[in-house]
Design brief:
single chain, alpha+beta, TATA-Binding Protein, eight-stranded antiparallel β-sheet, globular
Length: 141
């Protein structure tokens, strides 16, 4: 999977959205510490994580994505995974209650508009490339 990026999408709670508004780097470092810390136990990491994020409504997100792409001949769905594969794009989005995972060969995938529709307080991280942003700060055509 050369030139693919993996984005993790988190629904940030209102308090942390307010605290970290215009401080994307600090929020990224917070997540990065949870992700890579050797000092914290899994249990402690989960407790911290639960304070930062809100849960997704997996069923409504699956319905939204399905509704938006059902007429696309390159779209497929299997349980909580949606994909679009054609000669320009190979994108898969996995919907979980605690986060969404997008694997794609595009910087802006066909699922980007769907992601923006879910919630304005979504924080997106590509841990491998140290890339991070709030979805509300990205222009999507």
């Amino acid at each position: 999977m050369d030139n693919y990026r993996t984005f993790y999408i988190f629904k940030i709670n209102k308090l942390f959205t307010t605290i970290y508004d215009n401080k994307d780097y600090n929020l990224f470092m917070f997540f990065n510490e949870i992700n890579k810390s050797k000092k914290l136990s899994i249990k402690d990491k989960y407790k911290i994580y639960k304070k930062i994020v809100r849960r997704f409504n997996k069923n409504s997100i699956n319905k939204l994505i399905y509704k938006n792409h059902i007429n696309n001949v390159y779209y497929k769905k299997s349980n909580n995974m949606h994909c679009i594969i054609n000669k320009y794009e190979n994108s898969r989005i996995y919907i979980n209650n605690s986060f969404i995972k997008l694997i794609t060969n595009k910087n802006i995938s066909s699922f980007s508009k769907d992601i923006r529709e879910i919630d304005k307080d979504l924080f997106i991280i590509d841990f491998n490339n140290n890339d991070f942003f709030f979805i509300k700060n990205i222009k999507i055509k």
